[in-house]
């Protein structure tokens, strides 16, 4: 896709007022077209599946909120990247914490913009994603740069396996269930849980679950 092409956008946000505002903005931009909207990640995945099956026009870029009911933006981004790898996801959110950024980019997002950014930056991020580039909000980019230069603490000190197990702990799985899910021994699962609690300086699985929810690794229970 070249810069002069019209980029088709699917907006995903659980707040109607945000969707209306984005529609008004996208309708006023000659190089952008709002193809549709979804109220959460689950709705977005379902719409994309339906459009694909029926041969309807597909978006080029999905503009994705993070904190939503049923299926959050990270999970939806991962599902879209798996089922529709040709589509690009740009996260548009109020949350700029490093762990949320890391989770979104790891899931496959091609951009991350904060909702207090000006409209020109939103357009830049959409066009960048459509041309195969990655665009990060300047505040987010600075945060990541500082995080990379700083000693590893907190969640950044965890290995990928420990992060995976933290998510399972937050989902309420016991050591035996974690072992079965990851095809490891229960003793190994118990060791990983103990290690991650130590690195995070936590004393219980409940504290670990609350941390995972606060950092956006899992959605809060409904």
TrEMBL record:
Keywords: DNA-binding, Phosphoprotein. This is Response regulator transcription factor. It comes from the Bacteria. The keyword Phosphoprotein applies. The keyword Phosphoprotein applies. Residues 151-216 form the HTH luxR-type domain. InterPro entries: CheY-like_superfamily, NreC/VraR/RcsB-like_REC, Sig_transdc_resp-reg_C-effctor, Sig_transdc_resp-reg_receiver, Tscrpt_reg_LuxR_C, WalR-like. Residues 8-130 form the Response regulatory domain. The modification 4-aspartylphosphate is found at residue 65. CDD domains: LuxR_C_like (cd06170), REC_NarL-like (cd17535).
